Amino acid sequence: MVDAMDAPGPQVWDDMTVEVALSVMAGARSRYLLVRDEDGRCTGLIGQAQLTVVRDNPAYTDWVRLRDVLGDSGPFTSPMATIVEAERTMRHGRLGALPVIDEDGCAVGVLALSR
User: Which CATH superfamily is domain 2-112 in?
Assistant: First the structure.
């Protein structure tokens, strides 16, 4: 699996606002950000489209944090999982990318489906 994954890419804290996250994403020219909690553990992956929908909602305020958008943690895969297992998870969840996390909850990479 290590050969198939990309480097983790930009990682941000879950208390970051949506607006700042969109700026980080634009500056990094990334399609997604890995989100971490206060302990540094990966809590999820968030994409530009998801953030844009939140920002364009009439109820949006500039106080909305990434932790408010993400909800529950996951899905994730392990570096020990096979490509077939990871791909099944991605297709089942209709995910374009899937964080690969180690036993401590830290992101070691990201798997992305080919476009």
Answer: CBS-domain (3.10.580.10)
